[in-house]
Write a structure and sequence with these properties.
Layout (H helix, E strand, L loop, with lengths): L2 E5 L3 H11 L2 E7 L6 E8 L2 E10 L2 E8 L2 H10 L2 E13 L2 E10 L3 E8 L2 H5 L19 H7 L11 H11 L19 H10 L8
Antiparallel strand pairs: 1-8, 2-3, 2-6, 3-4, 4-5, 6-7, 7-8
Helix pairs in contact: 1-5, 5-6
Length: 208
């Protein structure tokens, strides 16, 4: 059994992360819900699975059965609702990953999901500063609800310097500096990442 915590995220941060890390398109088609059970078909690139999820007290168990792509396409045609999103997976450290899903159908919304093995892990998770408000208890942000009822319409998610700094720390290793690597000695001042950091930092006030 696993538990999932979900969060909103500023769209600008999602665009930045996707530009550096890429993404993969996933399409899911959901069948009418049953008590305590959710079934859907997931097409991820050349792979297709029929998925059954059972839920109990906030925890869930997922069973997957691989099916031929042609069968998956046929199942999508008869599903009650469909959703498509671009997924980017980023490492948060300590073996924990975040799944960033940018929904493109039936509408647009960005959702971060983090999966845990037990309630203690979920409760002790230090939420990164670039995550937005938590929406774990809001069913509207679950894939099933998005596919069957449409996307939620959250308010604007604020973008702070602390959030941008945290995201830059995720992508800066690509440039050879930052939290996980020594500064570059090539004479370059940090390229794209440092330019973004300068933009995010307000200028110091001029002396009177």
């Amino acid at each position: 059994m696993t538990l999932v915590r979900r969060f909103q995220v500023a769209p600008a941060l999602v665009r930045l992360i996707r530009k550096e890390r890429g993404s993969s398109r996933i399409t899911e088609g959901y069948f009418p819900p049953q008590s305590g059970r959710t079934s859907f078909v997931r097409v991820d690139g050349g792979q297709c699975h029929l998925v059954l999820v059972t839920s109990d007290n906030g925890a869930s168990h997922e069973e997957r059965t691989e099916v031929p792509r042609a069968h998956g396409d046929a199942l999508l045609d008869v599903c009650a609702g469909r959703a498509a999103y671009d997924r980017t997976q980023v490492a948060l450290g300590n073996g924990r990953d975040a799944l960033i899903d940018r929904y493109v159908a039936p509408g647009h919304v960005d959702v971060i999901s983090v999966v845990f093995d037990n309630p203690d892990e979920a409760g002790g998770f230090p939420v990164p500063p670039w995550f937005g408000p938590e929406v774990t208890t809001e069913p509207a942000y679950e894939g099933r609800s998005i596919a069957l009822q449409g996307v939620p319409h959250p308010g604007e998610v604020g973008l702070s310097n602390a959030a941008l700094d945290a995201v830059l720390d995720l992508i800066e290793p690509r440039y050879g500096f930052g939290r996980y690597a020594a500064p570059s000695r090539t004479g370059d001042d940090g390229g794209v990442a440092n330019a973004l950091r300068r933009i995010a930092t307000p200028p110091a006030p001029e002396p009177a």
